[in-house]
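Justification of computing resources. Each target in the renewal requires a structure prediction run like the one illustrated here; the chain below, 183 residues long, is used simply to show the kind of job we budget for.
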Amino acid sequence: QGKQKKARKFAVMKRMISLRDERLKEKDRAKAPVKKKEDPSAIKEREVPQHPSCLFFQYNTQLGPPYHILVDTNFINFSIKAKLDLVQSMMDCLYAKCIPCITDCVMGEIEKLGQKYRVALRIAKDPRFERLPCMHKGTYADDCLVQRVTQHKCYIVATVDKELKRRIRKIPGVPIMYISRHR
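Resulting structure tokens:
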């Protein structure tokens, strides 16, 4: 004959020994932390994150026509694939005058891509595009754009790069323009 199974009781917790139990030695007992009384006359310091003065709640007051749009390398390439005139489609999107801006880092990135992207280079050298000089070393364009947008919140960032969009969404008050469904 087998052993009879004992049904387990539902929701039973293990008993814990209390801190006041006499079986505990004095050194094992935890001392209750002594709370200090706060001085009501003392000046309370609080750290509040600094937000730029251009942000009125979540609304960026520095943005207004004519819009300055920072253009990324892949935005130019995708506009060529979608057969879009860059400046005209920006104006159609925002219903206002747009000034596309291109940094030296983005220009260097397009030049590094070589002969395959010569059309993109010709578009980037368009006189309607405003050139922004870069003072930093290195030519990683994404870092350059994020740094510029963090300092000056007067730009709209035009990019198709998912990683760059994710980084820019963390910066409050900076809108993102991108191409989807050939628009």
